[in-house]
Amino acid sequence: MKEMEGDRIFIEDSGLFVEALRGFPGVYSAYVSKTIGYKGILRLMKGEENRKAYFKSVVCLKLKGEIKIFRGKVEGRIAEKARGRGGFGYDPIFIPEGSDKTFAEAPEIKNIASHRKRALEGMKDFLEEFQI
Asked: Domain residues for 110?
């Protein structure tokens, strides 16, 4: 990050972290999505009782030489099978805490609970507070 050129830079990365898989796919979520996809995650989770998982997003902002980090997280669990047609990536298998629907079944829930949205709102609040 410090080697990047420019006065204002921001980057974002996110991932799905599954407790029973020791945090996998985690930082490899994009690669895993392209290779085995959510169907592969369901195969790895077959017979697993512990379905706890979370999405986490980290936004890093470089502004006038200073680096600020903002995080967003949404807790939930992995469904037994894929459900819903909306969304992308792991949305058909992720059920957020407090819901019985996957993100793919209920995009309106994802829009409210999104880990990425939470991280970006933190950055927005920071920028507004300092009138940047």
From this structure: 8-129
